[in-house]
Amino acid sequence: xxxxxxxxxxxxxxxxxxxxxxxxxxxxxxxxxxxxxxxxxxxxxxxxxxxxxxxxxxxxxxxxxxxxxxxxxxxxxxxxxxxxxxxxxxxxxxxxxxxxxxxxxxxxxxxxxxxxxxxxxxxxxxxxxxxxxxxxxxxxxxxxxxxxxxxxxxxxxxxxxxxxxxxxxxxxxxxxxxxxxxxxxxxxxxxxxxxxxxxxxxxxxxxxxxxxxxxxxxxxxxxxxxxxxxxxxxxxxxxxxxxxxxxxxxxxxxxxxxxxxxxxxxxxxxxxxxxxxxxxxxxxxxxxxxxxxxxxxxxxxxxxxxxxxxxxxxxxxxxxxxxxxxxxxxxxxxxxxxxxxxxxxxxxxxxxxxxxxxxxxxxxxxxxxxxxxxxxxxxxxxxxxxxxxxxxxxxxxxxxxxxxxxxxxxxxxxxxxxxxxxxxx
Length: 425
Prior knowledge:
alpha+beta
């Protein structure tokens, strides 16, 4: 959520930011009109309340002096009725203003490249060299079918499309990756391990920016105000909602494993095969709460920590900086890490590392004090996948496939696989 002072006093800056994002300024115009009307009503209401206080003293004086006060009492009744109407309209406008504010995206950081779509994203660096095959590399779903480690057909029978059963060493590989990532981030990178709830309330999704704008993308539990989490970012960031931290507690670094649930409402017809885009998938998430002056330094660290997973697994990847037109709703700056998929002859996103500055913290009211008695300030929040587990499985199957249909297990994972080095028929 943007600072309302920015909307009131620097609205042109917000309009320019929305233009860079290729977003509509309609809501901004509506905000300005409503806010002006609110100020008019407040001025009239406060003036009438002032008059009522003054006249109340006059009524008291007249009564004490035995004088008739009926006329001004009747007048004050009308004033009271008017104040009540004004206050009701003010509350209604404030509700509308809040709804508008919650739908306005974050302002991109000045360093973010300007562009219209993902075609305008800027490649920052590459790691590793894509393997050259002596045969046409198979897609991960074909490899998995031959090895009998993923079953999409029975998952479709049990649940529906975009679900999968992991089997045998496929299930072991998924579990091994989760533990490998959690150990790496907690033991080597210094994050505090969390196992969060898989359902959250409306306030939590509002706090991180999924609601109210993207309600169609999440699954709601019927008959409740609970939602299945689209990412562990939601419960972990909201862990400190409505709290004031000490500066000595910052930065807060959390790593959390969770299944994630997404309706993929805007992904009709995309990635319908395989495990790239599922309604339910596993992910390890990195979350940081930091002092504002350190947030961009911490974004670089967080991105490097996510990259380290792919380096240890020997998977080629690249890092791209998202342009303004491809930036997520809540983000001020984002790096996408894209892993190489041989069957598609391209890089595909496996992690998105973002700095939200104080956008989420304002919504969730997460603050800190620099010293005792100091005015609270909003923290900056950051998060990134460390990594999306299913996509990592897909990348391993495709990059480590062998001519005989088997798949070599990356050396770093073998201790988590019971020292299994190859998945074969």
